[in-house]
Amino acid sequence: GLDLEKFLTSARSMVLSCAASVPPAENPGVRLGVILGQSAKVGRDKITIVASPPIADFGAWLEQLLAESTGKQGKGLIPVDAEPLGRGEVYGADRLFVYIRLATDPDTAQDDDIAGLERAGQPVLRLDVADRYQLGQEFFRWELATAVAGALIGINPFDQPDVEASKLKTRQLTAAFKASGELPAERPFCVDRGIELFADPANAQALAGSGDTLVACLRTHLDRLGAQDYCAFLAYIERNDAHRELLQQMRLIVRDRKRVATCLGFGPRFLHSTGQVYKGGPNSGVFLQITAAEARDLAVPGEKVSFGIAKAAAGRGDFAVLAERRRRALRVHLKSNIAAGLATLKGAIEAALAQRPAR
Asked: Nearest Cα to 243, choosing from 252, 232, 235?
């Protein structure tokens, strides 16, 4: 709904401000990049994005830019988008908060929460946006800043090697389906409350002995979270408000009980954003992949593979690459009604972390 010429004209002012002729100390893109890169080098690599509600979706764009550009060679910035703000005591020492504030339509409660984080000693970077037309300036500033941050942490920000790895695994699985009419067989290591649990041999071994219940396995899995780690929910289910709300509640339970950053992505979309840093970045993630049986599948015209099979292959391929990279990962498969399964999973996470002190 914006006037494109006005939008681009506004963006041009940031292009000129970030020109090579502008000294680094006065260059807004370079300065931001240095802050991001140096923060990561001292352990504050969880870039927590907070944006005014009318421009909140800027976080989804920024999430992809940071994760896909910097997450490789065991390094990277971990973007944390759409995680509701909490009190200062629920955060560790691995965060850098970025507050992108729309000056023409600020949220006073959000302002108060940010001020509370600053009082608690958390670092907050404030970027004021005068109006929506200035978002073009922020697009350019962040693109340059990401390249600068990548140089500082020692990676090439212009490739995405681990995105292709998941695609390769997915193609192998879909090829197997075309040849045999079914995906390769798999067996859950635990079935409880209508939920099946799957893991690769290494992760299954790590969870062995925790018990044969959903709660016990989740407790052991989430207890693998350390002080500098993050927990990511990878949901291969329909992205709707009801599912998102239940998953948001789950991530907050984990954040508040374990004092770790949390991420939430819907598959297969996130494979082209945070999927890169999850596999190629630092091995600091503990992953909970969520899949579900298809209530209604659709054929892909001219193909033997349906949309449901394609999605299942994408999820299994994604999990296989996480396992190859020795990530701490557990797959939860909902066998029946997805909303009911998510509610069961939320209750199990609450029970698993009940009255357990954060590390």
From this structure: 235
The structure tokens 């990279």 sit at 325
pTM greater than the 0.90 cutoff: yes
Largest Cα separation within the chain, whole Å, is 63
Task: Return the structure tokens found at 77.
Answer: 């910035």
Pairing of strands 328-334, 285-292: parallel
CA angle 121, 145, 80 (to 5 degrees): 50
If you search the block for the tokens 């939860």, which residue do you land on?
332
The two tokens of residue 278 are 């999850």
Is 329:322 a contact under the CB 8 Å cutoff?
yes
Q: Could you give the 3-state DSSP secondary structure of residue 72?
A: strand
CA separation, residue 26 to residues 14, 29, 31, 144, 146 (Å):
12, 9, 7, 14, 17
| 304: enclosing H helix or E strand | none
pLDDT tens per residue across all 359 residues of the chain = 899 999 999 999 999 999 999 999 999 999 999 999 999 999 999 999 999 999 999 999 999 999 999 999 999 999 999 999 999 999 999 999 999 999 999 999 999 999 999 999 999 999 999 999 999 999 999 999 999 999 999 999 998 888 889 999 999 999 999 999 999 999 999 999 999 999 999 999 999 888 889 999 999 999 999 999 999 999 999 999 999 999 999 999 999 999 999 999 999 999 989 999 999 999 999 999 999 998 889 999 999 999 999 999 999 999 999 999 999 999 999 998 999 999 999 999 999 999 654 44
Q: Distances from the Cα of 145 to the Cαs of 54, 131, 153, 266, in angstroms?
A: 24, 21, 12, 26
Alpha carbon distance 313, 243 (integer Å): 21
Residue 88 CA to residue 111 CA, distance in Å, equals 14
